[in-house]
Design a protein that fits this description.
With 223 residues, the protein is an alpha/beta fold.
Length: 223
Amino acid sequence: ASSWGVSTRLMGALIMSHSDDNGLVLPPKLAPIQVVIIPIYKSMEELDAMRSSLVELQNELRKAGLSVKFDDRDTHKPGFKFAEYELKGVPVRLAIGQRDLANNTVEVARRDLLTKETRSRENITEYLVQLMDKIQDSIYQKSFAFRDANIFEINSWDEFLKQIELGGFLSAHWDGTVETEEKIKAETKATIRCIPLDFKEEAGTCVFSGKPSVGRVLFARAY
């Protein structure tokens, strides 16, 4: 039997990888709610007049396979709801008021980019289905770019000591012995995080011991 370690650590990785100072940012494929519909109204009469149109929109989006919540709670103002769903990381927020109903428009807000745009209600379902893929890709690319920008190629022990204080992943040659890894850890608190998936065999000398090395590994401090 083997354990693949699938546990709450995946939730931690999800939160750490994508979220920002406003709260969670959830990739659409993992978000329990992908789209939230928030009505903008001044009175209960206004809300009641809008309700059937918004329920119809909710049903239309659900038929297309999207997970949708229509938040018609009259106990919280729209601004509170905006902040709540931003904090929870819901990928897309739709705000619809009386003017939108009259103009056949919808305000679409993206959680990942914190952008807003007004779009026609026509073809909104098709647009949102495609937008989920766009957001999924955008979140992945941003995270990928951040990771790559924080990998530093290190070729000397002096460089290693300087960069480890600044943080990031250090790509450095290692002689393959546990003894060397232990000594590096004792001096810098850094350990080998992984041998890269695209590991290339390249002859070099260990950054610490100066002994022969067959390739680079990634060192970093665990927090």
